[in-house]
Amino acid sequence: MADIFVYKMKRLVIGMNNDSLVRYNLQLSYLAKLKERTLITEEEYKKILEVLKRDYKVVSDVFS
């Protein structure tokens, strides 16, 4: 099980340096807070998440 997680994490961060990984995680955190506080809809959340994935070239969503 741990091997699968490590493999998925490696796929998630391909092409990301530490700074961009930190920025991506911060933006995910802020996005989750907006959704949690119902400041954005589920549809808006999904659209923003897709834009973040595209911008940061994320190939997998390990946390879903």
Chain-wise SSE layout:
Layout lengths: L1 H11 L5 H19 L5 H14 L9
Helix pairs in contact: 2-3
Please explain how this structure is put together.
With 64 residues, the chain is an all-alpha fold. It has one domain (2-55). Helix content is 69%, strand content 0%. The chain has helices spanning 2-12, 18-36, 42-55. The longest helix is centred in the middle third of the chain and has 19 residues, at 18-36. 2% of the residues are buried. The model is unreliable at 1-8 (pLDDT under 50).
Task: Sum up the structure in keywords.
mainly alpha, 64 residues, single chain, 3 helices
SSE string, helices as H and strands as E: HHH
Q: State Rg.
A: 13 Å
| SS content category | mainly alpha
List unreliable stretches of 5+ residues: 1-8
Helix % is: 55-70%
Measured by DSSP, the beta-strand proportion falls in: under 5%
Number of distinct beta strands: 0
Shape: globular
Biggest sheet details: none
Number of helices: 3
Number of domains: 1
Mean pLDDT: 79
Distance separating the two termini:
16 Å
